[in-house]
## 1
Amino acid sequence: MVGRLLGPRRARQLQRFVRNGKLTIFCLFLTVIMFRGYLGAGKFGTPEKDLDDIRETLSFIRNRAEPRRVLEEALISGQGGLKSAENAGAGSNNYAAFDITKIFRDEDDGAEEFNRDPSQPYSLGPKISDWDEQRAEWLQRHPKFPNFLREHKPRVLLVTGSSPKPCENPVGDHYLLKSFKNKIDYCRLHAIEIFYNMALLDAEMSGFWAKLPLIRKLLLSYPEVEFLWWMDSDAMFTDMAFELPWERYKDVNFVLHGWDHMIYDEKNWIGLNTGSFLLRNCQWSLDLLDTWAPMGPKGKVREEAGKVLTRELKGRPVFEADDQSAMVYILATQKEKWADKVYLESAYYLHGYWGILVDKYEDMIESYQPGYGDHRWPLVTHFVGCKPCGKFGDYPVERCLKQMDRAFNFGDNQILQMYGFTHNSLGSRRVRRIRNETSNPIAMRDELGLLHPAFKAVKFWW
Amino acid sequence: MGSGGAFPAQKRLPMTHGGARGRGAPLLLRGRQINKTLHNIKITILCSFVTILVLRGTIGIGSLVTSEADAENQHLIEETNRILAEIRSDKDPSDPDEGPERFLSLNDTFSLGPRISNWDEDRKVWLEKNPQFPNFVKGKPRILLVTGSQPAPCDNAIGDHYLLKALKNKIDYCRIHGIEILYNMAHLDKEMAGYWAKLPLLRRLMLSHPEVEWIWWMDSDALFTDMVFEIPVSKYKDYNMVIHGYPDLLFDQKSWIALNTGSFLFRNCQWSLDLLDAWAPMGPKGPLREEAGKILTASLKGRPAFEADDQSALIYLFLSQKERWMSKVYVENSFYLHGFWEGLVDQYEEVIEKYHPGLGDARWPFVTHFVGCKPCGSYGDYPVERCLKSMERAFNFADNQVLNLYGFRHRGLVSPNIKRIRNETVAPLVNVDQFDIRHAARHTAEPQS
């Protein structure tokens, strides 16, 4: 057809040209793809990936054959062989491949369920207006459950918690366990009770808001508790010797770490931290919780509230409403109503942001000793943003986990020294002896005096 | 004419051949045809090879669609796994090189510490000097519950999750009953590793805390399932050790499971220190433990062949030195200070229907002990699904008793979710008096056996 238009010679030239063009394009295409395949696309199906896979499989087989860790010696092959022979064919005995979520199932056991009326605006519960009187009367009737353990020392309940389902991150539960042990140690020394929550009380108040219905429930269920101390699961005690200055708080109801000027003047969204705070068990606190809750319910309410907060507070990024920003907003806009009973503590680290603390532990050990609670020896190191239980945090995984180990050991050393031991280093799980066993243990004293400290000596605390 | 390229060549070759020869002999034609075919095949193979390479290079086999989020996800998972492997490995870069491990030989004697012979007097003096740390509080002796687990992450994530849940379970019981709790995660004595690790720990705690009257060791795989039941300590005022077991299994049959050292109480006194000293020699890792294991297998009924464990060693000690120890040991089986899980976990629904918490025995077991499940390791002695499902059931069974005060309950024994069973009220203290175990116990007469 082209030939008819242009003439035979021209047509042939054109054909040749087109053919060459096709060839060139085709070869170019091949070359580009080859280059991309070996250098650019990385690991997707290249022969290199094959080698990696093979290596991985081999090392996995090698790991399986390695001797088990020391504590797993319990009832080795002999007994194991006996039992597994009996259970042969009844299912796998290997924990590695098992998915726990296939066990979980909701069932109805016939007990009547009470739900909130969804047509009503959200509330944590029916309004109570005489809690102080109710509580005072109850305390009078129960002299064996006083709200003060000693003069100036209130009865405190430390509340923390995590999800009832396993963490998405395979090592998250281990760090939750260590963090829990850390809190148990501090509370044992300071005669503080612990409540570890693993239940979502209200599906509407999920995520960081879940603490509100829980706190209200605990205040009302434990009238003998004078102060409720909420602490996030990613916060650890790093000063075991520091006792909170309870006398300082005798006239206030809410103690958080923060700075007055950042809240009331700047309205800065990180001017305070709700990861570790004290709340007195009284009517004022119930009212505060009721004022705090409305921004919480999941869905549209929380989204809209988030927009308001981002607009009103300094430096707040765009995301749904969180309890911390909401508290900043409440204090900044209703100062006259609440501020006189709120204490923003910055003299010690009731909450200590980990980023500025964790690298200084060795310096602190050299220059100071436990008991200060402040920048010299922080009371709490709070791993904000690390989210060890989830898959993604705001910081590199390695830094978070390594630093959490260091913070844990830093605190644990103060416990171990009571018994004559210490960790080999802040990064090591192993311990070594620093004090020999003696034939006269009564005379033995631990350096920090934590075995029988004054703040533990209470008449009774249960 | 143009040159190169696979396809044009294919088209041209027959032409050239055909054009040059014209009408040749049939044999030559056949040869040419074979050549042609061979040539075509070669080209086809070459082209297919190139195509496959190219395809593999860009698309790969298996992962057809790649996106940046997936890549990042993949990268994060790999990094976490690498760090996990590093954390789990026993090697610690910061630890000094300890050299090859040396075991005690058969001729060495092992001791937990320098011999102490007047602990009772020393302790009495200390208590007098420190009235702010009495050993009896509100009429009850001070108890310290001791438990623990390994310092490294479990072999699998699910192991740590159940350690966490078991610890919460113990904390709940201890809060309700005013018991202090200590969770140990350190290997205090490298020689006494594994199940023997509790011996140096118990000794150290007894000596450091003279104000503690009873030390209660509990394994990490044991859960409280009766939150109301309280140990009847007044029953044991003339004894120094309380352990679950069966006297006939112990003395008549010499069975290696006659007693269970997963949950037992020790009084803080000289007798206990002496017992620990007598118990320890079979423990040190290496040839001592191996040899001891052989003796134990030979002496105890039903014991398989493996190294010495603390339970068999204690039974052997009680059998061989009966007169010295047994007068102060209470072998308890009127309630489940230790309850073997297999016979208990399936009965929970029946138990809820027929009985009430506070009984502590077969009707409502006090402790459900998951012997053999070993969720922290890689392999247990029982199927994984059965173990984990049962542990979840036991945990929720106990948790329901705690949540009852708050007006909640789990949605079934295998559900992590809860439902409200009591409305909020404006007078919550009525419910507190009725449902808080500590207050309710004062109003009902609990049988103290």
## 2
Amino acid sequence: MLSPTSLIQKQYVGFATLPNQVHRKSVKKGFDFTLMVAGESGMGKSTLVNSLFLTDLYKDRKLLNAEERINQTVEIIKHTVDIEEKGVKLKLTIVDTPGFGDAVNNNECWKPITDYIDQQFEQYFRDESGLNRKNIQDNRVHCCLYFIPPFGHGLRPVDVEFMKALHEKVNIIPLIAKADCLTPNEIKKLKDRIREEIDKFGIKVYQFPECDSDEDEEFKQLDKELKECTPFAVIGSNTVVEARGQRVRGRLYPWGIVEVENQSHCDFVKLRNMLIRSHMHDLKDVTCDVHYENYRAQCIQEMTSKLAQDNRMESPIPILPLSTPDVDTEKLIKMKDEELKRMQEMLNKMQQQMHDKEQ
Amino acid sequence: RSSNEEKRNLSLGGHVGFDSLPEQLVSKSVTQGFCFNILCVGETGIGKSTLMNTLFNTMFENEEASHYQNGVYLRPRTYDLQESSVRLKLTIVDTVGFGDQINKEDSYKPIVDYIDTQFENYLQEELKIKRSLFNYHDTRIHICLYFIAPTGHSLKSLDLVTMKKLDSKVNIIPIIAKADTISKSELHKFKIKIMSELVSNGVQIYQFPTDDETVSEINASMNAHLPFAVVGSLEEVKVGNKAVRARQYPWGVVQVENESHCDFVKLREMLIRVNMEDLREQTHARHYELYRRCKLEEMGFKDTDPDSEPFSLQETYEAKRKEFLGDLQRKEEEMRQMFVNKVKETEAELKEKERELHEKFEQLKRMHQEEKRKVEEKRRDLEEEMNAFNRKKVAAETLSLSQPVKKDKDKKK
């Protein structure tokens, strides 16, 4: 096989402008990103989202009392905002999960969340298989920030169960919330412990892609530091305070001022850079190429195995999915079919027995 | 028993000396030593052990608990401490595994059971005939410190449910743990929210007593600071030219004993230095008495009989005992009766079966006779047939013997 020979241009052809063209087109098209935040009440999720996107998404929300939360169920609430920076438009959707982990009995409290993610996949699957694919809306969840409380010694059972239920459906980025309650030593210990437990329980959190080998040393070093810093210990703030002669986002205490964007105070900057400035597109790619493809393959497999069993089908296997591909109803239909078959067999057997007896 | 005597006030002519009674009491109690039992309720890692260490300035032994316990269990540990000449037998009870399970509906039960068990043990000792209350190791819980996580919003649902179950059994002081993560303004709002939630749900927490003028002022002001926002630490950091217990952060140093940083000093003051004795008293006079009354009522004791005459415990006890023995006898009778009935029944059954068998036997016999007779008949018939046949045969033979040629001739034709 001939390997492509690299030709050295004698004259400038011009396809080096391709990256610029991509840039121009993408700016025109605009971007979209769906971010899910999950964790118990009071972990600072809303404050962190406000700090990340420098806006106030949660102006008039109402928090429930302890009494109201005893039997609370998990809700899914979407906030969509259109923001723009230097001509680049971003349609940002934040998916909130109020009520997670707040009730006294939290059995399967992650089910509404996994159902939501699956629904978005299913909708995209249908849209993708449709006839008119011009304006497909991508509502799939690209990233889930999971807030781990800093008060414990590591992951708790509810953290483990949640992450295990979601790690094959969405990119999970675990965060240590309210990190201003931990001294630097305590942070290090907790991070090590959490990383250990993530390994131990086989949880697949989002992995940063490897650096290309031809990147410069500084970039590689930064990348290495980033990876060793996970899970990020974050602090958020809705207020601006005066520190060291500047106005910064921070928290004012009698003993000092915590600056959200100070890298020696917390990992907020690392998170922001990673989430927004460098890896946003990779998160989308992994969602499309890995999580969605897994879902799609599984879906198709289920459908074809059902069709194979169903030998009453005379029409060819449709390219389009059936009109109501509600997974639950399909399962029900399958079950009923099997029951019918069983009963038929029983009837046959009985008939045979009677026949034998008569003889 | 009401006395109709008039009480008269007399003035003393000189110094008699009974004003030393309080000192005598004190000296006696110092010789005896004191006993104090603290229950710490809070999720794993919230800082219960660290706070105990900080409060008592001692490194009590403790291993870090795991988050993966199947349920909640209580771990009591007793220590003998001494300060000046005062000896304290301190028991610290930890709730291990609290708040870790996914389903926390039963989390409060082991705690309530533990508290009740200590009351029960005391009650048993009290009811003994030969009892030694003066050297009984009192394990009843004098104070429950409930550790609230510093979310800044409100109580957790588990907190509310648990405190409601505990408030009638033990003195509760709610505290906000790891308070160095809440800023001043947030703390103010948080405290108000917590107290209003407790009030609106009818949770009774311990109120520092304001009936004694010497301490009423400070107690009243402290009541307004609940829940106490505390920070614990055994590590020391150099501040100025002193080494103080503190937590060192990149942005500053949180000093445990600095009242503008947290309420640790208030907690220590209230819990140990001012109201420890009151806590013990309340436990005995209020919570224990309530338990005792409920328990005895359950057992059927009353203070007054149907005629509203006061009952003595002894009489009630005798009556109960008679009742119990009567019950026992009755039960024995019942059982015996039942046994006799059962035997009769079984006998009757067996008789019935016997009769049936007999009948069957008779029937079979009859059938057998029938069959035999039939067979006999058939045999006779058969014999007759055989005889008839033989006769015919003989006749035929004699006939053929007398005309043999004719037959041959006929045949040849």
## 3
Amino acid sequence: INHVMHNGGLYKRPFNEAFEETPMLVAVLTYVGYGVLTLFGYLRDFMRQWKIEKCQNATEREEQKDFVPLYQDFENFYNRNLYMRIRDSWNRPICSVPGAKVDMMERVSYDYNWTFTYTGRVIKDIINMGSYNYLGFAQNAGTCQEAAAKVLSQYGAGVCSTRQEMGNLDKHEELEKLVARFLGVESAMAYGMGFATNSMNIPALVGKGCLILSDELNHASLVLGARLSGATIRIFKHNNMQSLEKLLKDAIVHGQPRTRRPWKKILILVEGIYSMEGSIVRLPEVIALKKKYKSYLYLDEAHSIGALGPSGRGVVEYFGLSPEDVDVMMGTFTKSFGAAGGYIGGKKELIDYLRTYSHSAVYATSLSPPVVEQIITSMKCIMGEDGTTVGKARVQQLAENTRYFRRRLKEMGFIIYGNEDSPVVPLMLYMPAKIGAFGREMLKRNIGVVVVGFPATPIIESRARFCLSAAHTREMLDTALKEINEVGDLLQLKYSRHRLVPLLDRPFDETTYEETED
Amino acid sequence: MDFKHVKDYIYWLYYQYLLITCSYVLEPWERSMFHTITVTVVAMVVYTAYVFVPIHVRLAFEFFSQIFGGQPESRV
């Protein structure tokens, strides 16, 4: 049952998003599992404290025992007692380009994951369902690689300076003009690291006396940038426009906390696709709210640029909106372009201001030339300017893969979160033992997946996250689906009762809106 | 041949028990300790049920039949 929403014509296409509720029995059993692990964790900690067992994690030296404690023992309780036991599903070393198939070095552990040794064997051709390789540009052969190799032989690999000093290459200028043209904005600026783009530029845009309204599930880089800026931060419920409107109203009506002065600026921080949930932001509604209450919008398109929209221009094109409505369009080159770095696009005055006042521009090294060339070539390929239709074919292949994969998984009976069109597919696991079991079983069957547990997700909602790619062929997806089906039966992961919870949406009324939820 | 089927099924049930109670991630000695405790508790529950449930059921049955039947039982 797909919940279709028509909010006074704001949406030109159906917005199908679903988050099926956790079955009660599964939730209870998950808590039972965590209870058992907690008890055994206390037992092991007791044994370590009384030296019955050797303590293998970090502790102070004998001479420092009387000092103020350096390591907070209780904070690392979860880390020592659960994460260590299933640690072999993370930090797996790969030894080839992370395309649709990847090679991995095999490791074993003889002391329950405290140390690993390499057996020397390389597991070849693992189907890669974990890399953010949405358009398949992570390649070591092809036009992008040749162009990057040429630039490498011309410019070298290092830049050895920051943007403001001697690190501003003509390649960077070319890249920025291209990015501005791609997004449909006046001007853009590129930075060396996607995380640093958020965390170093939000402090340059807002300061004390400003208000930041940030989504519940925003990425750590946005949260860090918001905290560093010193502005007041208020959180609204994930993708919930009623919650956002209530906060905006309160902000306008009551102003700053003690002095009741109006806020200097109100900045709304949202992401295009939320990578842990697979949900897409309700951009038409956010823009309508932003215009009504005269605030600014910062859109982080890390996962959605290149992955959404008929020609890969991101979530703004997906909803058919104009890029001029979004004040600050931020994105990264890591995911769809197969490179590294981030960009910010917007009006010329804004970008000129950021060129002078951004911490990243002043202190961080600029992008490396071969990486810049990879971005330029891949972006031209997506736009179709290199003369072929490869880019368009990839965007369409990704959309097809997304729809097919999600439909098949739902039919099999797994609980899948998120929007129908997002290439990030979270499959719910819930129980902590199944996190480790799923990772290991899938690796045995030659499929590499990313499983996510507590600190990144709520404690009972652990999940396996699949990232689809345009490089996955139909056969690879079928193989992967067959194995997922088998592992799902083996581990009893098919929790879905095909009862989609209808989305809590109410018609958006421009004039009177009294009904809000607390 | 059918015996193998049954053995596989029982092993699969054991695997589910390990996953649900998170003993899948425990070390072997912890697992033995957990199994011992679980088996002990379950055995005690079963024994208590065996000893007490029939008597309680019979008493409850007599109590309710007295209310609804309305006839005092003869003492002789």
